[in-house]
């Protein structure tokens, strides 16, 4: 189905199932421990052997020699695979560094061997006996040192490294009110709860991988490319994924090593990446240095806005596109953005929840707060004065929907923003200095082709099959809701099967594009199935209703299942998009409000209240959508207050590479969180009229905290995370 | 190798194990009770929480052979999809999970936390060590803080637990 004209009324608009707060259909499996994750398929691959990964002990250089003799004679040992004996390996389209290192080493903890043994304990013990001698080379590990030598990265389509509109330098220089400030965001880790894990089984030259992966089709292709197999010989199965946040978008070492280990062992092998390897072995969100310049008139109207960002990556890696939102979020006739990329020998930088906008909004939304103060304006009023209903770079290109100001105003009222004292450091509650902060939320809505197959059986049961994944996002439930709405059956008559490469290719989970696109693909397949049902039942009219398990037209009503009484009916289709995203800018908007306390003596920061107001098209399931947003808010609290991969700049690795050292929010850090979804449908986005929400929720949160800390203390911290040591020397007198 | 026998979810299980086998791996790899999750294997995340002798522990931080004759309850023992424990039902109702990987640990912890408070065991945030602790927001969040949820379902988990505890969130 080609979606190239705005959606009109369709069966989804009935809203009998869609739009209702619905508990996750897989909830009973997950809460009783019956959902099967990648490492747990005991019944599918009996007597799997265990693989244990050996990671490189240097960041850059070469393996001079490997001594496997002691490991090979360890009890229970079956095989040891290294680059030397693995055979020729390719590199996946989505990988920057190769997944099995040697002899060249590209980054610290790059896998250099997998040790396969009868038991986990034996594999772990034998792995300690692998002796590797390295010749270390000098590497670059310091982004601030690499800033001046950073290069202009190649552009891609509309996303060029440099953008310019009007005369930014002139307009900024002549602006009566100016801000020129530099912000930094650190390297961050996804730190999802389930480690990267895979179980591999070969039948001849056909490989089955039970794995934990967000993008089944991408990764199936990259398995084939890496192992030199035809794509049709690779089957991926990933129905449950213990979190991803971008860290499981790609083929990673666990899958490659399980496959190589299984081939060497001649039996199924499973590999779960050890937690302490994950932070350096896999991908992370790269650190940024961001310079933001804003010039405005005394009327509070922005006349010049410029945003530059520096980040680093391995050769062939890409920049963190932290300037994205600044091209679209606020008005201003004179504009510039620039991305620069330093070559670093740290582990591979790549997408993490809202790549680009998440770190970009961490900086931009502090800058907006600073600018509002310079102008003597309330930060909400300042943003409202600079709202734009069109793409500021292309004024003839409107936003499909844009309710940023509404989000801010409604949130202000609900949160009690009027009680905020604009003068910092003035609100006391016992030993706490109390502050409120606000930030805009912004993230683009991406359109991706997505397919599904829908089957109908004689009992009127509908089965949906798509390689879409559910990484905690609620895909199972919204896909079931979509099929139920389209076919006119209750939710319990729908079976959803996901995450299998033998199913039609979907958008997958990433970039907050999963929900809108995957349900639209299911919509398209259901439209086809409805046609097949109508034809089978001999309905000629175009006016056919699918309701309550019945198919009706005029006076005639037939049970849906009757269409499949002679055999199952099946339909498959994809949603594909025309030019609506070119003619209209599709984005999602929101506002984050935070109240927190800062201990006047210790500078300990405690979040007290949080509210997010979101305008993101039709909300398919308010219950799971709310969870996406509060989860993103929680990750935003982590970004603001604690998350930082500490770089060892001499030896080139992230030091705090486990869940004790890499701090993420825990229960005690997070108060009750509120969300409000504005009533919105976006006919430009898809037949579902929905947009993404999961990444919108993180964009701006950290800045709202930073602004609240400023409001509480009068201390403006521009370097994340805002740990108490950055406040302590500057705290106002108790 | 050594033999060990303990009760798991009401059933006595005898195992012959490498003595290095953690209770977590005994459950997951030998008894195929994979509801208990391995998130870090280092006692940092809480995903492996089970209830042993009425107390919650990180099953990755203890060897299976140390539990001879003891009573282990895992997530599978609390309830089944057809007959869920009230805490499991409350987690579904309040959407106290997303990816589901930390969830068994959260639920085992939550069940044990309520028992700890009933038993009068104080926590880091208990103001008066001689007084009976109450299930306040601070007590609940402090006691659950050993169970990380990276999806960030904390606000909903707190609501699920407080519903079962019989007080408003």
Short recap of the structure:
By secondary structure, chain A is of the alpha+beta class. Helix content of chain A is 24%, strand content 26%.
Task: Quickly list its features.
heterodimer; A: 734 residues; alpha+beta; 7-stranded mixed β-sheet; 5-stranded mixed β-sheet; B: alpha+beta; 6 helices; 5 strands
Describe what you observe in this structure.
The complex is a heterodimer of chains A (734) and B (169). In chain A, 24% of the residues lie in helices and 26% in strands. In chain A, the strands form eight sheets. A seven-stranded mixed β-sheet of chain A has the order 4-6-2-13-10-11-12. In chain A, strands 1-27-21-22-23 form a five-stranded mixed β-sheet, with helices on one face. Helices cover 33% and strands 15% of the residues of chain B. In chain B, a hairpin with a 2-residue loop joins strand 3 (49-52) and strand 4. The termini of chain B are far apart. Classes of the chains: A alpha+beta (734), B alpha+beta (169). At the A-B interface, helix 1, helix 3 and helix 15 of A face helix 1, helix 2, helix 3, helix 4 and helix 5 of B.
Q: What is Rg of chain B?
A: 16 Å
By helix and strand content of chain A, what is the structural category? Answer: alpha+beta
How far apart, in Å, are the first and last alpha carbons of chain A? 65 Å
- Secondary structural class of chain B: alpha+beta
Oligomeric state, counting identical vs distinct chains: heterodimer
Low-confidence stretches of chain A: none
- SS element count, helices of chain A: 17
Lateral arrangement of strands in the main beta sheet of chain A: 4-6-2-13-10-11-12
Roughly what is the average pLDDT of chain A, rounded to an integer?
97
Q: Total helix count of chain B?
A: 6
State the strand order across the main sheet of chain B. Answer: 2-1-5-3-4
Beta content of chain B comes to 5-15%
Main interface pair?
A-B, 65 and 65 residues
Total strand count of chain A, please?
A: 32
Largest sheet of chain B: 5 strands, mixed
Q: State the order of secondary-structure elements of chain B, H for helix, E for strand.
A: EEHEEEHHHHH
- Report the major sheet of chain A: 7 strands, mixed
> Could you say which overall geometry of chain A the principal axes of the C-alpha atoms support?
globular
